[in-house]
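Handout, section B. The chain below has 445 residues.
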Amino acid sequence: MTARQPLSKGEKRLLIATVLFVIVAGAIGWWFYSINVNPVVNIPEPPPMPNPNARDIYLAAQGLKVPSLPSIEPAGRHVDIDRVYSSIQAGKIVPPAPGERPPALADMQALMAKNAPVFAKVQQGVACEYRETPSRSFQQLFPHFAKLRDLARTMLADGDVKCASGDWDGGAERFVDILRVGNDIPRGGVLISMLVGVAIQAIGRADAWNTLDHVSGAEARRAARRLEEIAAHRVSYADILQEEKWATQAGLLELFNTPRWRTQGMLGEVMSESPTAFFRIQIVSKRTAMTNYTRYMDALIANAKQPYTNATKVPPVPHDPVSQMFAPVFTKARIKDVMASTENDLLMVSFALRAYLADHGKYPAGLQALVPAYLKAIPADPFTANGTLRYKRTGKTYVLYSVGPNGADDGGTPSADGQSSGPGAPVSSLRTGSTGDIVAGVNRY
């Protein structure tokens, strides 16, 4: 038997190089495999949609809209929906810009009469449950939100015409209808649905304030009760974030299954603008990105379940490029949600106080006098750990307020934010850093 010849130095080097190559190639292959393994997440099946769905009824109502009357030029009496709600403020037709003629009230009334089927359809919708189609893809668009905003503006025009015609009760009813529609929209939806709902509520609430000193006691009582019911059916911010989490998780799974998702499509296009970001997206693990996003959203949801005053600091967005793109900071969204509900509650109590005044000839000594005849309960102030909205009599009138984002009771001194310094002046938004109180009828969001 021939003895095995020892390996030459060259053969040894070749063997070592081969082993090292196999190890490195295996490691690279395993790394490449590991960063491309799809994550496993639990996304529940969407609940069954209500039938009928108020969402479909509202959209059908918008489809009935008659946008304008035929032009009666050269008399200058052309009237359309946009001109109606921009021509009336606080129940009066405002002076037009130089060279323009305002539409005649009779023409505005005629236009809104043609839109009566729209408002009748809306009333069918408010009697039904509303639910958004759950978002489970980044390709899912929301074109119906623009239609719902348009519906709110049509309702606003009708309410304004009613007020200008002396029907303040009818105007208040229409503005509360807008608040109902805006409050419905976030149900079952993601963050954009909440923001659209908040914006629509602001449309109705702004002009509802103008009716407060004109409505009858009966309508004031009815408006307060309706606003209380609307508040009871408000979708929580935590539920909105939960839907946002499931929607983005589903979208990420869809994205991860797309060929060349790291270099093409919406993510690749954004990352290609920065060489560093483009490199980072090539080496990020799918599972790591999904885990980071999920943990971040879970922290936000847990935070949102706490009262506003008890909420902890929002965690930082994870550093991986996927989370950096799809997990924006949601602090501004929460203050919008809390401010909208606070303004609605201030309006609700103001209507209840108006009804009390009509019945008793004076305002009550305290808010508890409104329970149970006008309200089931006095709303809590979300900006305090414990306590309701503040109220104090000032002569024959009153000051009703929330302590605002800084949590300090300033005795009803309104914040400089959320109010106009004069006609046509811009209104600065109430925000997390605002000081002073949120005073009913003064600070408007």
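Note. DSSP finds 15 helices and five strands in the chain. Compare this with the example in section A.
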